[in-house]
Design goal:
It is found in: Secreted; Bacterial flagellum. By secondary structure, the protein is α+β, with helices and mostly antiparallel strands. The chain has eight helices and 22 strands. β13 and β14 (283-290) form a beta hairpin. The longest helix has 55 residues, at 38-92.
Length: 445
């Protein structure tokens, strides 16, 4: 029956078209299987792969931003600690600080550096330590191989910043004045005057000739004179003035002349002739005044003179008559010092800035350091290497800050790249989605 067959064929066609229409209406897709559009399905599937890959890449880029921000935040804290260390270092380099001040400053610096190490070791993103080692973090920002942005990471701690052992209160070259002021050193400063060697006792100031035991006094003409010199002409007691002060003094009367207390041993007459005594430089000295009514003369049991400190003394006891100022008047040239601390002998350079221990035999330079309790100690140059203060500390910190700044700049730049990548990925996904829609989506019009 041809009519029946035609009817059935048309019904089948209608049924097929209706089924296809219902399927498209229900799914919203023009291509629900490969038979709907074999070529179109393949093309749309490639679009889908790209869209899904780019969408995930956008999420990856956002993760990259979070990673970079975490790293930058840690670097910001390291920077804050470095700025404080620099501030403390500027304070420490000021000469007004005491040893206790420097110890306190160094203690805070040490804690700040320890905090830098802690931040470096413990800061992590999703289990990845961001500053604990030199590394590269590749972020996939595309749907295909090789489409990545690299985040460069660096190990940032006290050691890599050049601050390992950073010290503003470490061992420094000891000076002659350090030995005297901090260790109560004894000994002499050594001078040369016209080829003759002199020593000045650093404690008493007494001047001696190194070739003998004579004590030197400052003579009126500015020359140096030994106690054995019979022509000594120091600034002495004026006989006429002494007689005037002693007129009519009874025996055992006391009076003061030029700051010295005298006792009348033999009663003075109206002109001041008499015998007087005074305690000078720990020694009793007798003064005999005669011919006071004419040109008074004075005979003493010792040669008496006034020293540079304005005090009277004698030439037959140890004295401070000739001092460094007297040597200077005689064009003295300092050749060095020989100082003793706790039984150890040290040679000091002429400028007082370098000390070597004579007993060591190798002339190693001595440094001033501190014990654990904070007391000053002397160490040789070998022991001082690990204890010395950082050379050019501010320059050292500036280099550390520059290294941190460079890494922060890289992280800031890479965050901007991620922002740009995310925007571009969004545009690409939108355009690909539109193109795919035109191929596989149902057309309701």
């Amino acid at each position: 029956n041809s009519l029946s067959l035609l009817t059935q064929n048309n019904l089948n066609k209608s049924q097929s078209s209706l089924s296809s229409a219902i399927e498209r209406l229900s799914s919203g897709l023009r291509i629900n299987s490969a038979k709907d559009d074999a070529a179109g399905q393949a093309i749309a599937n490639r679009f889908t792969a790209n869209i899904k890959g780019l969408t995930q890449a956008s999420r990856n880029a956002n993760d990259g931003i979070s990673f970079a921000q975490t790293t930058e935040g840690a670097l910001n804290e390291i920077n804050n600690n470095l700025q404080r260390v620099r501030e403390l270092t500027v304070q420490a380099t000021n000469g007004t600080n005491s040893d206790s001040d420097l110890s306190s400053i160094q203690a805070e610096i040490t804690k700040r550096l320890e905090e830098i190490d802690r931040v470096s070791e413990q800061t992590q993103f999703n289990g990845v330590k961001v500053l604990a080692e030199n590394n590269e973090m590749k972020i996939q920002v595309g749907a295909n191989d090789g489409e990545t942005i690299t985040i460069n990471l660096a190990k940032i701690d006290a050691k890599t910043l050049g601050l390992d052992g950073f010290n503003i209160d470490g061992a420094q070259k000891a000076t002659g004045s350090d030995l005297i002021s901090k260790f109560k050193a004894t000994g002499t400063d050594n001078y040369d005057v016209g080829g003759d060697a002199y020593t000045v006792n650093v404690d008493s100031g007494a001047v001696k000739d190194t070739t003998g035991n004579d004590i030197f006094v400052s003579a009126a003409d500015g020359s140096l004179t030994t106690k054995s010199d019979t022509n000594i002409a120091g600034t002495g007691i004026d006989a006429t003035a002494l007689a005037a002060a002693a007129k009519n003094k009874a025996q055992n009367d006391k009076f003061t002349f030029n700051g010295v207390e005298f006792t009348t041993t033999t009663a003075a007459d109206g002109n001041g002739n008499g015998v007087y005594s005074a305690e000078i430089d720990g020694k009793s000295v007798t003064f005999t005044v005669t011919d006071a009514d004419k040109k008074a003369s004075l005979i003493t049991s010792e040669t008496v003179y006034k020293n540079s400190a304005g005090l009277y003394t004698t030439t037959k006891v140890d004295n401070k008559a000739a001092t460094l100022s007297d040597l200077d008047l005689n064009a003295a040239k300092k050749t060095g010092s020989t100082l003793v601390v706790n039984g150890a002998t040290y040679d000091v350079s002429a400028d007082g800035k370098t000390i070597t221990e004579t007993a060591s035999g190798n002339n190693k330079v001595m440094y001033l350091s501190k014990s654990e309790g904070g007391s000053p100690i002397l160490v040789n140059e070998d022991a001082a290497k690990s204890l010395q203060s950082t050379t050019n500390p501010l320059e050292t910190i500036d280099k550390a800050l520059a290294k941190v700044d460079n890494l922060r700049s890289d992280l800031g730049a890479v965050q901007n790249r991620f922002d740009s990548a995310i925007t571009n990925l969004g545009n690409t996904v939108n355009n690909l989605s539109s193109a795919r829609s035109r191929i596989e989506d149902a057309d309701y019009a």
